[in-house]
């Protein structure tokens, strides 16, 4: 949940976000759209903990089994947020799928010691994105466009995030890979809370539970997509 968030980059006089509030229920799919330069990426960066709001709050409200809100709400910690930026494959750094996945994981003397839980999480992430069976020795750069996106997703999903954020997940893919990613997101939506920034409203609208338009000047308003009537 985001409540009354304002953001002015340090050393500047202009608010890029102006009183942004919205809530996304657990295991639902939210979509933010709007003109280029309106502030969508800025908002994602705050949600991922890459910058801090000037004022306002970002938190998670969890509920008990009886459906009562847990008190107090928890802060959304960056380690619990998975974010896949636009064109994630451009930032692949390793020569093998295994090294790409474990890049940045704590290394121990004598090499990488994968904790049992992480291996289980990774296997689950691979299942979720349909990458099970892939050779871990394969060069990630040699994968097809759609499979590169699957790998980028699996890397984030291995941490089992409370919130998965995707910035333009269909950008730069051919029609077949786009359809594959849409199908995959439909499947992931059953397990995860997903927030997407995209201009591809038509292809994603069947998945959307809530949607918002970012207006120029960083003002967010709830909107229904034309064909779903969903707000
Ligand atoms: N650190 C900064 N200092 C000053 N202005 C900034 C800073 N970061 C972004 N901006 C400006 O804030 C505005 C919003 O940028 P942002 O990237 O969030 O927009 P966007 O909606 O994601 O655009 P796009 O759809 O093109 O990705 C833009 O005018 C951008 O130039």
Features:
231 residues, alpha/beta, four-stranded antiparallel β-sheet, globular, binds adenosine-5'-triphosphate, ATP-binding, ATP hydrolysis activity
Description:
This protein has 231 residues and is of the alpha/beta class. It has a single domain, classed as 3-Layer(aba) Sandwich (Rossmann fold), CATH 3.40.50.300. Helix content is 26%, strand content 21%. The protein has six helices and ten strands; from the N terminus they run βββαβββαααβαβαββ. The strands form two sheets. The chain has a six-stranded mixed beta sheet, sandwiched between helices. Strand 7, helix 5 and strand 8 form a beta-alpha-beta unit. It starts with a strand and ends in a 9-residue tail after the last strand. The mean pLDDT is 87. Bound molecules: adenosine-5'-triphosphate. The site of adenosine-5'-triphosphate (ATP) has 11 residues, from helix 1.
The N- and C-terminal alpha carbons lie at a distance of: 16 Å
Query: What is the CATH architecture assignment?
Result: 3-Layer(aba) Sandwich
Give every kind of bound small molecule, once each. adenosine-5'-triphosphate
- What is the average per-residue confidence, as pLDDT, rounded to a whole number? 87
Order of helices and strands: EEEHEEEHHHEHEHEE
In CATH terms, the superfamily is P-loop containing nucleotide triphosphate hydrolases
Topology:
Blueprint: E1 2-7, E2 17-22, E3 29-34, H1 40-47, E4 55-60, E5 74-75, E6 81-84, H2 97-102, H3 116-129, H4 145-157, E7 163-167, H5 175-188, E8 194-197, H6 201-204, E9 210-215, E10 219-222
Parallel strand pairs: 3-8, 3-9, 6-7, 7-8
Antiparallel strand pairs: 1-2, 1-4, 4-5, 9-10
Residues 9, 12, 16, 36-42, 214 line the site of adenosine-5'-triphosphate.
């Amino acid at each position: 949940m985001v409540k009354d968030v304002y953001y002015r980059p340090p050393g500047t006089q202009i608010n890029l976000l102006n009183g942004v509030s919205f809530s996304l229920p657990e295991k639902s799919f939210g979509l933010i759209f709007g003109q280029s330069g309106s502030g969508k990426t800025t908002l994602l960066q705050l949600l991922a903990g890459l910058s801090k709001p000037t004022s306002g709050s970002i938190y998670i409200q969890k509920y008990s089994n009886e459906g009562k809100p847990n008190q107090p709400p928890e802060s959304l910690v960056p380690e619990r947020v998975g974010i896949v930026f636009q064109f994630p494959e451009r930032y692949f750094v390793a020569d093998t799928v295994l090294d790409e996945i474990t890049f940045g994981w704590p290394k121990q003397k004598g090499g990488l010691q994968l904790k049992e839980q992480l291996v289980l999480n990774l296997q689950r992430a691979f299942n979720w994105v349909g990458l099970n069976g892939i050779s871990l020795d394969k060069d990630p750069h040699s994968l097809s466009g759609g499979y590169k996106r699957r790998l980028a997703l699996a890397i984030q999903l291995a941490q089992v995030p409370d919130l998965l954020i995707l910035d333009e997940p269909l950008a730069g893919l051919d029609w077949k890979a786009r359809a594959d990613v849409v199908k995959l997101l439909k499947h992931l939506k059953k397990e995860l809370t997903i927030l997407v920034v995209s201009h591809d409203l038509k292809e994603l609208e069947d998945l959307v539970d809530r949607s918002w338009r970012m207006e120029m000047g960083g003002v967010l308003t709830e909107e229904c997509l034309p064909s779903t009537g969903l707000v």
